[in-house]
C-alpha cells in the first residue's frame, strides 16, 4: 500500500523539523550548497570564452585568465562540496541519535501487550536500520531541495541567455526525463520500505534462534528454523535485486533520451540560419550546461 502524497509531505516536514534543530550546521551547509550551485553555471559559462577566446580568436587575456578561473571554480566547488557533505553528515548523525533515543524511550513506556503482538526483530530493525534510512532521507531531501533547485535555475538561465531556441528544444524532452526519474524514485521508495520489513524478518528469525538455540536443539527444530530463515533471506535478496534492476534499467533509458536531445540540438545548431548566432564556444557552453542540468533533474 503506497503512502499518499499528503502523508509523504507531512513525513518530510517532520523529518525537516528534526534537522532544523541544528540550524547552525544547516546554515553552514546551505552556504556550501549555494556556492556549489553557483559553480555549475559558472563552469558552463567559462566554456564560451575558453573556446572562442583561447582557441578561436587567440585572445591573450582569455589565454591568461581562463585557466585561472577554471582552477578557481573547481577549487570553490571542491571546498563547498566538502563543507556541505560534512555539515549534512553531522546533522544526519545527530538526527539519528535523537530518533534512536526517542524510539528507545518510547519502547520503555509501551504496554506489555504491544510486545506480545510485535516481533522483537522488527522493533530492533526500526531502532537500527530504519532510523538510518529515515535520517538519510531527511538530510538528502534538504540538500536536493536547496542545491539542485539553485543549480537548475542558474543553468536554465544561462541556457536561455545563450539561445532560447535551443533551450525550447531541451524543454520538449526534459518532462520525459523528469517523469522517468519520478517513477524510479517512487519505485525505490516502495521497494526500500519492503526491504526494511524484510530486514526486520531476518533479524527476528535470527534473534529467536540465537536466544532459543537450546530449545531448537532439544526439539530438533533445526530444519524448521533453516526453512524459516531461508524464506526471509530469499525475500530480502529478491527485493534488493528488484531495486538493482530498477536502478540499472533507468540508466540506459535516460541515456537514450539524452542522446535524442543531443542529436536534435546538434542538428538545429549546425543549420545555416544559426551559423551567425551560435559560435563554437556558445554551442559547447550550451551543451555543457545541458549535461550538467540532467543530473539535478533526475534527482
Can you offer a commentary on this structure?
This protein has 299 residues and is an all-alpha fold. It has a single domain (5-298), classed as ABC transporter type 1, transmembrane domain (ABC transporter transmembrane region fold, Up-down Bundle), CATH 1.20.1560.10. The protein is built from nine helices and no strands. The protein has helices at residues 5-20, 23-56, 60-109, 112-117, 120-162, 164-211, 213-218, 222-269, 280-298. The model has no long low-confidence stretch (mean pLDDT 80).
By helix and strand content, what is the structural category? mainly alpha
Overall 3D form: elongated
Look at the structure and name the CATH superfamily: ABC transporter type 1, transmembrane domain
**Main pleated sheet:** none
Radius of gyration based on Cα positions: 26 Å
Using DSSP, what is the number of strands? 0
> Can you give the mean pLDDT?
80
Order of helices and strands: HHHHHHHHH
Helix content: over 70%
Which percent range describes the beta-strand content?
Answer: under 5%
The helix tally amounts to 9
Quickly give the CATH architecture: Up-down Bundle
- Give the end-to-end Cα distance, rounded to a whole number of Å: 24 Å
Which topology does CATH recognise?
ABC transporter transmembrane region fold
> What number of structural domains do the residues give?
1
CATH hierarchy class name: Mainly Alpha
Low-confidence stretches: none
